Amino acid sequence: MFAIVMNQQLYLKVDEQNRYDFEALGLSPFTYPMKGRQVALSYWSAPDVIFDESEEAVRWAQSAWAAAARGHVAKAQAREKAKARLKKRPAPTRSAGSH
Do strands 9-13 and 37-45 pair parallel, antiparallel, or not at all (unpaired)? Predict the structure, then answer.
């Protein structure tokens, strides 16, 4: 996912590579309350300019798409590493008394 809409507000995917663009405009992440505290997601408010200028809409959407793609690749790599670690573990052994 590269965007979400919550409460009639558009939020775009953010990561370390595009976060500065959002911060520079004073935009903020989507947050929600959970267990007495606010949880922030990696989706930040979209700038208003994207609703008026199609070139800006494309630029911001591409940035969010790229952030989502980077996140997808990172998750896939983490899954592969976890699988490799599991394969390296020795098989569990049974004790002599168990059947």
Answer: antiparallel
